[in-house]
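Long-time lurker. I teach an intro course on protein structure, and each term I like to show students one example going from raw sequence to a predicted 3D structure in token notation. This year I'd like something fresh instead of my usual example. Would anyone be willing to generate the tokens for the chain below so I can use it in lecture? Attribution to the forum is fine with me.
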Amino acid sequence: MADFTSRARDALAEQGISMRQAARALNYDVAYLSRVLKGKQRPSENLRRGLDGLTGAEGALLAAEVAVAADAGDGPGDDLEAVELARRVRASDVGAETLERLESAFDQFAVGYQTASPPALLRDVRQHLGYVTKLLDDRETLSEHRRLIVLGGWLSLLAATLHVDLREPRAAAARLTTAASLAQHAEHHEIHAWTYETEAWRALTTGDYPRAAELSRAARHVAPRGGSAELQATAQEGRARARLGQRREACAAIERVQRLATTMVLRARPEHHYQYDPAKATSYTATTLAWMGDPAAEQPAREVIAQFPLGADAASWPRRAVSAHIDLALILLSCDRLDEACDAARRAIASGRLLPANHWRALEIVRVVEGRGLPEAVDLREAYEELRPWGGGE
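-- Reply from a regular --
Happy to contribute to a lecture. Here you go:
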């Protein structure tokens, strides 16, 4: 522990970052961060990664973290029964270790979002939400109470996103209302902004593009400046503007995303659903340009596809790769490269990874192919009709 704490304190001092500034930037309680930096409490994995990114330690703090984690004997695969047993043995209150393990579980869910089966992931998220609700009835400190509320907000938000993906609007709306309430109670502006952004995504998938643009602007207004929620909301607004045919505004959104991305500090693992990273920037650029009918969409779409080893087993594809195939097919159709377009669309539809919330995008391509009387139309229509009710493989 001493090795990590000394390195963390030195790294913060070298960057001129106070403990209070670090706690604010990473959304942690100052008292908790103080105990960690004094060696009185073991840091969570999320905090270690956050401090490493915030201070530009380039992995030095993560290297120290490995030794600490090994000494603690704490692994990411622990389930809720193990968490509850450890909590009861240790003390009658909630305890920092329980919170850290639950926060780590949420991070794993957010990272796994790209490849996990939506129904299976939703079951895990709901199970952990139930456990957080139970803990809120137990004895806890004010700091622990706020961390539970924040954790409940993040889990509710992820559950809402999964309900949107599965085309379950009533459940999605209920989860978003809960997430927004918890965010306001904890004064957590980032979660609050993400609730607007998620609702904007839901509006986009149902074709309500003006509302999607309006909600994206609301998310940008609430979001902490320079954070992932602001960047994601900007990208979402760009996509809505593209669907509305507002080319100038859509291009301006793409430029804002690129500017924000160059200054962002990565505070979580890559592929974390609530952490913007360059891979996502490329993906949203491809979709926005494709929806504008701009041939420039081909390059970013192919860049996204090239980021993943897309072998014969399509069940392992991340959903971003599937979306990139749809983008590619759309732009190739507009360029009259019909054989390539049909092949890209077929691969996306046949992958089994296309979310119900994105079925409409595939249907657009099928209808264009049918409208042109192409021989591939029959096979594409059959593949589309056989789409599974959700995009994932249990």
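Some talking points for your students: The two ends are 40 Å apart (CA to CA). Residues 65-78, 88-92 have pLDDT under 50 and may be disordered.
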